[in-house]
Amino acid sequence: MEKEGNITKKADEFLQIFKKGEEFTKELLKENERLRFKIAQLEEAMEQSRNEGKVRLYEERIQMLEKEHNSLLEKYRQVEEENKDFASKYIEVETENNNLANLYVASYQLHSTLDFNEVLRIVLEIVINLIGAEEFAVFLMDDKSNELVPVASEGLSISDIPKIKTGEGIIGTVAREGEGYFSENISRASEVDARSPIVCIPLKIKEHVIGVISIYTLFVQKTSFSNVDYELFNLLAGHAATAIFSSKLYTQSERKLTTIQSFLDLLKEKPKR
Known about the structure:
Blueprint: H1 2-110, H2 116-131, E1 133-142, E2 147-154, E3 164-165, H3 169-177, E4 181-182, E5 199-205, E6 208-218, H4 227-268
Antiparallel strand pairs: 1-2, 1-6, 2-3, 4-5, 5-6
Helix pairs in contact: 1-2, 1-4, 2-4
């Protein structure tokens, strides 16, 4: 009986030890699970921290790229503005070259002939094609009557254009003073008044006025005068005056020579018996 009691006691002690081991194992497993969970949390936190660092790095990189992009855009805008400026200047230079070429051609044409009617025709073409006038007239001074007499016109009949006394109205004043007249209003009037031009240019040889060019209307597409127009006005004031005056003298001298030659030929003829 005593032996059975010892065995039972030892069995109970063993069971107690086994239970304690079991409990310790369970606690150990729980602790292990808790540590694993903690490690997982730490790893997740570290991964998140690394991700946040990457995000910050990416954000900084994006900001830097955006700055570079904005800088490139600004440079592109500057280059585009410079290109526009260069293109504008190129057009201005090209226009100026064309204008100079037109001025040269006009000047050359005016002095290319001594035929009076041909010179007047060239003056009309210059005023039409280079200035853009639609209706205008050329007056020449008659020193005997002290009047401006229309000798050529475009868009108007010469018979409808009156002679004008020196000092009378706009045209007469321009002839007397030798200074050009430019109206502030160049819009088309309903009716043309031959005494009221929008532009009147004196034809001068030095300070002597030999006539005027009186412009009444411009073509529809011509809404204003440019710098080249005023250069053309100056060209006409001087070169056209010289060409007209020279051709007129030459034509008169040719007529006189023809008359004299005809008279001499008559004198040389043998009288009829």
